[in-house]
Fold this protein.
Amino acid sequence: MAVPPPPAKASASPDPVSNVPEWSVGDLASALKRTLEDAFGHVRLRGEISGFRGQHGSGHAYFSLKDGNARIDAVVWKGTFNRLRQRPQEGLEVVATGRITTFPGKSSYQIVIETLEPAGIGAWMALLEERKRVLAAEGLFAAERKRPIPYLPGVVGVVTSPTGAVIRDILHRLEDRFARPVLVWPVRVQGEGAAEEIAAAIRGFNAMTPGGSIPRPDVLIVARGGGSIEDLWAFNEECVVRAASDSAIPLISAVGHETDTTLIDFVSDRRAPTPTGAAEMAVPVRADLVAEVIDLGRRQREAVLRRLDRERGDLRALVRAMPDADAFLAGKRQRLDLAEARLGPALAGNARVHRLRVSRLVERFARHPPTLALARARGRLARIGERPEAALRHDTARKTEALTYLGRRLVIARDGTLGRVRAEQVRHRDRLGALQARLVQAGARLTERRADRLAGLAGLLGSLGYRAVLRRGYALVRDVDGTPIRGAARATRHMNLEFADGHVAVRLSEASPEASPEPTSPQAPERPRADSAKAAPKKTSAKRVAPAKRAQPEDAAPVLPAKQGTLFDL
């Protein structure tokens, strides 16, 4: 028998139906946006600008407005940014007018700014400016405190967070340019206690002993990535600024991006726009150094070769321009020959000049004989010799009379006064005697000096007078009136010859008409030879007959026979 099917089981009860509508994320974001925009519309918002980094690549600007309790994102579109009278600045307190809206991509709300007006400096910037003013007044930011960065440091010290991207960028850049040992002092770069750690790290590097087990860095890099003014505030703390100022190691600050500025940037020796830029300032490029050294070596070799070539060319030119020995000495030889040819006439002319000077001096002595001056000097000396004695006697008599007169006046004086007068009289008498002795000595010395001078003049007269010449074997020819005959043309028939030991009268015989004077050299008179006396014929008559006259220069002395067969030069 068929079994009936089991009764069907009752189905499960359906889910309870809800009246809450379902929303997609996009729909909800759009609804919130409309609600927010409808509820608020345009608003005027006062706050401090934070996180402003300039315009984005698209031309828009993104930053935040904050106060002590909250913050709101802000955006300025490119077209609006170009029309703003007040451009955004970090830390500037402003009054912004715009629309409140949302950004669905981040589920955040923001204000789209249309106008921007300054409202004053914010609290953070006011504190920063005050601290900057105080530290600048102490001279911590002075340019003369800046020290040069070593060109190639042996060790580089880095003060930064060990977990951020900053240390990796620095190490990578150092490796690319010039690998150097790096010491990293890990610190917190923001938050509570970060400033104390940074200051302790800078002082710790400076406390290292040079040449110790851990090498002391030659340059320090204090680095951090970008952020808002609150994020970078640790590098504005006074302890960090003073630690950087006291650092004996040159320090490079690389805090934030290029537009971020902290107080450590003012006190550091160099400021880098980015941590990567700090690594580039710390070390040079090794490849550039190697290329520069190679280039300098090449230029040095080329300069030496060029110098050698130039010197070699100059030497060849000098060798070609140098004359040979004969050409070089030809002019010298010619001048020597010319000087030799001129020497003989010059010596003869010099002898004539000196002979003429001597004859003029003899003539002057003849016109002004020293005997006359000697006689005058002796006369003056004789007169002077009598005058001192007469003057002394006259002065003695005058002073004796004066003393006698004073003696008579002092007889009637008192005994004490008379004694003083007598003492004064004795003193004057002694002084008079001393003066008389000095006068006598002075007269004697004057007489002695005059006598010595006369003796010297007499000796000079004896050496320069014509009688000294006569004693050397010469004779002086005079006419019958006693006038000296100075040339053969002036000779007369009757003449007198004066020798050193006496006078001889001579008479010239008439010369034959066929006789003619022999020419003589104008330079010097011809002296008679010693054998001429032997060859001359002896005279038998009482007359002394002179040989025929010989032509002589006007300044030469006449030559006449003094004895039989003997001639004398005047």
